[in-house]
Specification:
Number of helices: 12
Strand order of the largest sheet: 8-7-6-9-10-11-12
CATH topology of the largest domain: Rossmann fold
Radius of gyration: 20 Å
Low-confidence stretches: none
Shape: elongated
Strand content: 15-25%
Number of strands: 12
CATH class of the largest domain: Alpha Beta
Oligomer: single chain
Order of helices and strands: EHEHEHEHEHEHEHEHEHEHEHEH
CATH architecture of the largest domain: 3-Layer(aba) Sandwich
Bound molecules: 3-phosphoglyceric acid
């Protein structure tokens, strides 16, 4: 029986990535359907009605979407964070959910470094800025992205420290010349630049706020290429109001965007639309990996990248 694979991306992949996905899907004898830049939920709900597999980006795969997808067997989030997929609803139907870890990490890591320099140079406006060389870079979570940020930071001459309670092997940090610290507190109090790479989970939600920001060194910058949900926005606003030296740059527009932009001027910056994984390379890596993972799952039962076991 032929399988139907839907790519549903509100923020479309680069054309070359879509072509590559089509090649892999059709080579396997399956059908590819494409839903890009859809305007409302209704379009997504009708597009999933007859598909066996679904590839998404940050698109919200809610219980409603899963209920509407009667034949759905697998969802692959082409990317790292799968907080946009209702894992419980999927698991209840026996639907396999996967991500494509590492495939778009370099793009995000490059953006994190770029954001540090952008803030150090007054948002590319006139006036004396500062350099990132010689500054301390704190990396919160040393996963696929954090690791690359660490190595790039070292290459830029930064003093790199990191915190990650889930990494058990010290050698991983040592190999990159990165100093492991034992607590979140130690990380923030030393970081001139703090790069966030934690996922949005029940544990991390709203976990970065007033206390941590207030503990940072003079002139420190918080860089968020992770998720807006991990930020306690009221706490960040309060800290930045009390301390006029603190800066915040984010790739995910906060709910308090207007307030932050109004109050903090050049000390705050948010990209117009999340662009961390928006490179042709990342689209191709993640998109093609997603297509391959679906074909491997159907042909050989491979569930290596499943996240809802
Ligand atoms: C990820 O989790 O992989 C990134 O946040 C990328 O998200 P995007 O596919 O929506 O750009």
């Amino acid at each position: 029986k032929d399988m139907k694979v839907l790519v549903a991306t509100e923020k479309p992949f680069a054309k070359k990535a879509v072509e590559g996905i089509r090649g892999i899907v059709e080579e396997a004898g399956y059908e590819l359907a494409l839903l890009e830049k859809y305007a409302d939920r209704a379009e997504l709900l009708s597009a999933v009605a007859d598909v066996d597999a679904l590839i998404v980006r940050s698109d919200k795969v809610t219980a409603e979407v899963i209920a509407a997808a009667k034949n759905l067997k697998i969802v692959v989030r082409a990317g790292a964070g799968y907080d946009n997929v209702d894992l419980e609803a999927a698991s209840a139907r026996g639907i396999v959910v996967m991500n494509t870890p590492g495939q778009n990490s370099n793009a995000v890591a490059e953006l994190a470094l770029a954001m540090m320099i952008f803030m150090a140079r007054n948002g590319f406006t006139p006036g004396t800025g500062s350099e990132i060389q010689g500054k301390t870079l704190g990396i919160h979570a040393y996963g696929n992205v954090g690791k690359l940020v660490g190595r790039k930071g070292k290459a830029m001459g930064m003093n790199v420290i990191a915190y990650d309670p889930f990494v058990t092997d010290d050698a991983l940090f040592e190999a990159d010349g990165v100093k492991r610290v034992a607590s979140v507190g130690e990380l923030y109090e030393a970081a001139d630049f703090l790069s966030l790479h934690i996922p949005a989970t029940a544990q991390t939600r709203g976990s970065i706020g007033y206390e941590l920001l207030m503990s940072m060194p003079k002139g420190a910058t918080l860089v968020n290429t992770a998720r807006k949900e991990v930020i306690d926005e009221a706490g960040v606003v309060r800290a930045m109001t009390e301390r006029e030296d603190l800066k915040y740059i984010t790739d995910i527009a906060p709910d308090a965007q207007a307030e932050m932009a109004g109050k903090f001027g050049k000390r705050f910056f948010a990209t117009a639309k999340k662009m961390g994984a928006e490179t042709a390379e990342a689209n191709i890596n993640a998109g093609l990996a997603a297509a391959r993972q679906i074909v491997d799952f159907f042909k050989t039962g491979d569930t290596r990248f499943q996240v809802n076991r």
